[in-house]
Amino acid sequence: MSTTEPASTCPIHEFNHYAELPFGEKLARYDDLRDEAPVIRNEFANGHYIVTRYEDILKAYQNAKVFSNTAVTVFNPNPTFRWIPQMLDGTEHKQWRKQLNPLFSPKNVEGLEDKVRERAVSLIKSIAAKGTCDFMQDFALQYPSFIFLELMGMPFEDLDKFLHWEDEILHVSGDAEETARRRGVATVELTEYFRGLIDERRAEPKDDLISKAIAFEIDDAPATQEDLESFCILMFMAGLDTVTATLGTTFLYLSTHQEDRQAIVEDPELIPSAIEEMLRAFAIVIPSRKVLEDTEISGCPIKAGEMVCLPLNLATRDESVYEDAKEVHLDRSPNNHIAFGAGPHRCLGSHLARRELRIALEEWHRYIPNYRLSPQSHPTESGGQLGPNGNIILEWDV
Ligand code: HEM
């Protein structure tokens, strides 16, 4: 139970964001919260507020002086660590982003095109002849991991080691104590791995993100070793599971909506707008902020020190902004969604993510156009973001 006084003007719930539910149920639950009130007091975790409507959510993201990134999960309002750049505020954050942004510009990301496509094709070809696959295990987890290794300059032979850490840190579920222990062990191992890699790149710089970050200057001094490690950890958290989860929701949707799947096969030019629509309709990220001064959202007073949760799906499925918001229209235009966030912390990797998704959809539909969801599939979702955990079995005729 919460130790703080809930505000009287907003309904009170005990909504476990993290619970494991059949895929889609959580999204429906969020939609209900939006219909109920603009702000909900949630007694789950340490107690926090959920903001449910587009305008209020956007305003909070854009007001970083009041809505701070120094704490970003509702479980932990006073973290003793800081992931970089996500948990930085103010000028320190600006300095990191100024040096990072050019590395993730559309032009720079274009340079990865051939390698990304090569990897997508080789993975898809290895699957195509089988007539079936476990989509998350066989494709959605491996593909972004490869790209991450490439970007960070990590050796490809480390893929299995890396997939293991990814599983232990981002996907392990069950008994809370055991989960925390395993996550802790894997985080220590991953940090040590990054520490070694940073040392290697200091001695012998290469053309990769780690070598470039080593040369960053913050407050006129080189970025510290500790900050570089926190940066690597954040890149791992931000760049992998997001693409995996978006691939999961996209292929789950297309494999159960045959007309839309067929539309993509017949007209691959539809893919970029289809991706935007998947990002909007199933926006997976659920960021939170720490309130730094007493404030008020749509009549609900919120005290300094409280956490507010700003789920992006609540903004991107708001009927007052998007017509027919809960329906998927692959050719929706305009589709000015905020699935990559808004304000100073808007996703650094959005151009890369879009390219990864586009290449995956292009190549998949070229080699495996006629797939469907096997009746054995029972996808669920759990954890800090939306998106299927696994169990998406696809089948096709060979
Ligand atoms: C479909 C895939 C992706 C989605 C939906 C997504 C979404 C987001 C969102 C919503 C945020 C803002 C979080 C907040 O406000 O607290 C964010 C931040 C971030 N994302 Fe992404 N992301 C994706 C892929 C990537 C990729 C591929 C990378 C890099 C390789 C990346 C790197 C980052 C970083 C570094 C931040 C922190 C930015 C900051 O705090 O200044 N993301 N992402």
TrEMBL record:
The keyword Oxidoreductase applies. It comes from the Bacteria. Keywords: Heme, Iron, Metal-binding, Monooxygenase, Oxidoreductase. Coiled coil: none annotated. PROSITE patterns: CYTOCHROME_P450. Belongs to the cytochrome P450 family. This is Cytochrome P450. It comes from Gordonia hankookensis.
